[in-house]
Structure formats: C-alpha cells, structure tokens
Amino acid sequence: MSTSLRIVGLSQNEVVVGCSQGSLVGVLGPHVPELRALELLVVVARTGSIGAAATELGITQQAASSRVRTMESLVGEPLIARSARGSDLTPTGELVVQWAARVLDAARELDAGISAVRADRRGHLDIAASLTIAEHLLPGWLVGLRAQQVQRGLEPTDITMTATNTARVVALVEAGDVALGFVEGPDAPRRLRHRLVGTDELVVVVGPAHPWAARSRRRLSAATLASTPLVVREAGSGTRTVLERALAGLPAPAPALELSSTAAVRAAVAAGAGPAALGAHAVRDDLATGRLVRVTVSGLDLTRRLHAVWKGGPQPPEGPARELIAWAARRPT
Predict the structure, then answer these.
(1) Start and end of every HTH lysR-type domain (predicted)?
(2) CATH number for the domain whose boundaries are 123-196+309-330
(3) Which pTM does this prediction carry?
(4) Radius of gyration of the chain (CA)
(5) Which listed CATH number (3.40.50.2300, 3.30.70.1450, 1.10.10.10, 3.30.470.20) goes with 6-121?
(6) What is the DSSP string of 215-235?
(7) pLDDT tens digits for 29-55?
(8) Any idea which architecture 199-305 has in CATH?
(9) CA–CA separation, 111 vs 107, rounded Å?
(10) How far apart are CA 4 and CA 19, in angstroms?
(11) Between the chain's N and C termini, which has fewer beta carbons within 10 Å?
(12) Spatial separation of the C-alpha atoms in residues 300 and 304, rounded to whole Å
C-alpha cells in the first residue's frame, strides 16, 4: 500500500511530515547511508560490477567494497549478491536504489544551487573601506588581486567599493550590506571577525605659514597639541578616534573645524585653519611639495592598526574576499 506524504511543519531540528497514518517526525535515523555510498549502489546497479562502478567513481575496489559493507550494516540486509558473472542487486538492494535515485536527484539540485552561490560570490564582491585605506591602499590591492586572478586563469572579480568612515564601514558589514570591510583605528571592532593587514601612523601637520612651521626643531609637547584647536575629521572616523585616544586625559578646546573627508582637512590646514593629525599616506605628497609641514609631537603614540573585518566564521569568506585579505596582508603599508 502506498502512502502519500507532505511536509506540514518545520522546527529547528525536525521536519514534521503528514501522512495517511498521522504525523511523522522527519529526523534522519541511524540507518541512512551516506550520499557517496548511495551513488555507488546506483552505479553498481547500472554496470553490474563493483569494480566497474569503482573505476567510474574514481575510487579503489577496496574502498567500494567497504562502502557496500557499511551500507549493508546500516540497512541490516544484503544489498548485492556477488557471483562469477559480476554483482547483482538483491531485492532489498533494488528497493534502496529506487529510493536512492530520488535522494541523489535532490542532492544534485542542492549541489547546483551551492555552485551557483559560490560562482556569484566569486563573480562579484561588495566591500567598504575607511577613507585612508580606500584612497591610498585599496587601489593597489585591487590591481594586484586582479593581476593574480588573471595569472591563475580566473575571471577577474567585479568589485564594488564604498568609501566612508570606520564607524559606517562596521555598520555596513554588520548589516550584511557588504561582505568585507577595511577599517583603521587603535583597536579592531569587537562585534566582527577581523585580521590585521597593516599599520599606519598619524602625523601632525600645519600650513607653511603657521607659527609651528617656523620653529627650528618643529617639535612640541602632547599638552601643547591638546590645548590647540585642531582641524579634525567627523566623529566615527578612525583618524579622529586614534587622535582622541592618544590625547585622552589632556584638557582640549573645541575643534577649529570638523570636516567629513581627508581631502577637506588637508585643504583647510594648508589654508591656515589650524593643525591636524592625518595619516602618513594621506599627506605624503603634500609634505613633499611643501604644501604642508610636519611637526613632531613628543611622547605621543599615534599608531593606528588597519584591519579587515567580516561577519561569520573565524576565516574570511572563501573566494575573492579571502584572496584580497591575503594580498593586503602581504603588502607593506
């Protein structure tokens, strides 16, 4: 007598199946063979030989025989009858093959779906990065990653990048809007997985007409810096967080200006708005041309750490995200 089954409910660990005789709890029992073993049995049914099936599946005959024995132990009855002519299925084996065919079809559908997800992950990657990293480091990393992919014969990944401050990068990663973020600051975000990819330091700069630029040694104390109105980035910026952490405990006036981009801060300092602390990468060209002047601050640690951040497991997402992190970590900052 055949029985019609339908799924009538789901829970975290169970599938409740409705049938003519009531509801069955669809937790897999201890007698279900592994997919590879079922696949072997189906091929044996088609070829009539364990040896031929082993060859087709790329395993040894010893391994194939071991899988058959394991299946027979789970089912509790012989599945294959061996003879001089080859291997024939027993009635129970024929029944298991009928069931296995449907299971394997479902497994192939699942495999195709997973493959599509993986292909999409490799084909496109959304990332976000704090401004210093986005403007001065990430372009080189992306060029290097693309060259590496081409060298390996892979289609280059289409990457969309959002440049914003560190707090916003963390929010985008936490919300799942991007798969990977790069942030700067004294510490890594606690709520995300992270990996150190480099370090950077803030340097204090002034315009060439500022009184500090005329000092013979261009050196001042941390207290002097803290007591001076500065041109700063907006709250949530990794640059500002590092500066505020370094000057914590020292009396400080309100900022001279608060601006939302590194480029705006550089322009304001050059125009004489006041000193600022900016990443060394961001002011390298300005220092070389004399547009800005570096001032040394005694007894102040302005080192900041650059981290890749992501959600999920301890390892970065497989594919281009993991490859980009590995590439960045190998490059000197």
Answers:
(1) 33-90
(2) 3.40.190.10
(3) 0.63
(4) 32
(5) 1.10.10.10
(6) SSS-EEEHHHHHTS--EEEPT
(7) 788 889 999 999 999 999 999 999 999
(8) 3-Layer(aba) Sandwich (3.40)
(9) 6
(10) 6
(11) N
(12) 12
